[in-house]
Amino acid sequence: MRLTDRIDRRRRRGDGTRRLVRNLSALDPTSHLAEPVGRGATLERLLDRLDPAFDGRLPDNLCVVGPKGAGKSAVVTALFDHLDATTPSRGGTIGTTTRAAAPPTVEFAAVDARAADSEFALLRAVLAEVAAADVPEQGVGTATLRDRLRAELDRSRRLVVAVDHVGESRTVPLDTLDSAFESVAGSLSYVAVGREFPDASVETVEVPRYDRHALADVLTARASDGLARDAVDHETVSRVATWADGDAHDGLAALFGASVAAAGEDATHVDAEYVAAGREAVPRGGCSLARVLALPASRRRVLAVLASLDPADRPSVTAAADAVAADPSVDLSAATVKRVLYELAEDGVLRRVETGRDDDGPGRPPTRPEANFSTVVFERLGGDGANRLGR
User: Fold this and answer.
1) In sequence order, which residues have a C-beta less than 8 Å from that of residue 179 and are 6 or more positions away?
2) Residue 18, SS3?
3) CA angle, corner 235, sides to 229 and 237, nearest 5?
4) Are residues 174 and 253 in the same domain?
5) Where is this region: Disordered (predicted)?
6) Mean pLDDT in the chain?
7) How many angstroms separate the CA atoms of 66 and 193, rounded?
8) Which of 188, 206, 224 is a domain's end point?
């Protein structure tokens, strides 16, 4: 355990009481550790592909694929953070009489396609990582950004950029990366991270689901940072890992929800009943919470109000839209909310559950919109605009 954690643990119990939850953010399924747990082999495979960069050469383009919760983002984010932090600055090279030309410098940067959801936004995000001057958000065209990126990556500068969440609904597809970076192909290569790229023409590194023991190690490491000592035993963590079936996101979300339930009743341990509640709040095959939190604020507010409604108040999409629009915090018409609900269902953020009908009338039975993610975690992560992790 880190020294700062040891001191922090004692400060948190300064009132003489034993607090079950020390740091709820440690169980946040949308956050990543600086040192990924149980992914050493994957890190080595990625470093093998990036190895030319350590000799000043540009690596080939690469795709990193795997199912939700396999740790793709965690591994790539941690790796690129470390590479960026340890890359010598461009100004650190001193010329000599025998070698006046500076050797090529390979730099590393990472962007998220959930925020950079168009070619323009992608180019702008990459420029913001490498350019010293401000990058305009509007008033320039995509071609101008391409030219500026080409000017930034001169003969002595190379860039490897990781683009996370490529190929999701409403993010850029893989071929957009090829077209966006075509003009700097000799100076820039990418690492595209996503669920699958069936038509990829570049080398691919597959990240498999966690096995049960590895996932238990991940959950144990996070629980040791977030909960009081001995708040959850190894057997309980193993049961969560088995239930999560290799999905670290769902395992963390379940443990997060279980901890919230236990703390709400002033329990001193996360027992089986709280774990059951935490698991029940996580839909099987559900949507990633990071994806939900990346939605525009207006849509997150719609989701927050929808989650607060009693199922009886949302027996259909139309009824749900009317109820959500009636909330004073939602500045949208019922028609707009209805359209948003349908779009969120199409994207997998919501599920539409058939509710049946009392008559045998024609047409399809009505469907009730339900969150396809843990609303417990969503609410505590501030999905509706208020950060409650410390509560």
Assistant:
1) 119
2) coil
3) 65
4) no
5) 352-374
6) 87
7) 9
8) 206
